[in-house]
Amino acid sequence: MSYRIFTDATADLCPAMTEGLPPVAVIPMEGELGGVPFTFGPGGDLTIEEFYAGQREGKFASTSQINPAVYRDAFEPCLKGGEDILYLCFSSGLSGTIQTAHLCMNELREEYPERKMLCVDTLCASVGEGLLVREALKKQAEGAAMEELAAWAEDSRLRVCHWFTVDNFEHLRHGGRVSTVAAAAGTLLQIKHLLHVDQEGRLEVIEKPRGRRRAVEAQLARLEAGWKPEWGGDIVVGHGGVPEVGEQLRQEVQKRRPEAKTFLSEIGPIIGAHTGPGMLAVVYWGTNR
What's the whole-model pTM score? Predict the structure, then answer.
């Protein structure tokens, strides 16, 4: 039975991550930048470059859950075309959009009882979600059945290790993730928060190194300690509007782990709304999520 893998714009998939693999459908997501609504993803009206330029001008951003009509518009043509659907969704620890996806699928099941629709909470975000999607596409190409692939995703999602650093505190403060006092102190001391995505799929501050170099070394140390290439040989470096810095980090990862296949991907507005420009991420299959 033919099926299509869906994900959402939070997955931050760069073209190289899907090259040569079965097609993946990406559902756009919405937000506001400086009070102006935007759509990011296929058919969207805001580029990543425009988004970070706006943040650097002092604009703050917020994001919204995916609208039920957007889900229907994405899913229904696939069902009409005779394909089943496996949706690998943005972490429930960061958004309630998965509940809307379930509601939409329940309605569509009544209208298309002959079709199958499965929804997996990835408990992942940004390029971590993208890493899980990439591996799922590889398994689909190898002939995995949809039910088998959904079970694999649920069993494997907590092996995706996400380590993020942020360049400044203003967007974390604006989103309520750090206090005003902590943001002021962090800025004064040049602290670069090291965050990860925890077992519940939430962003959590783990360490507070001083300066970008120490923050990056903390990311690389965790990669060295936890990477399990037998689970997956891909490593993704993500960047928030700093491609040169991101490429330097990717090259360092490749130097330390020459057996890995490394990717450089842009971190889009959905996560970038909360972390701001200058964010760096290292994501891999490992034991130290």
Answer: 0.93
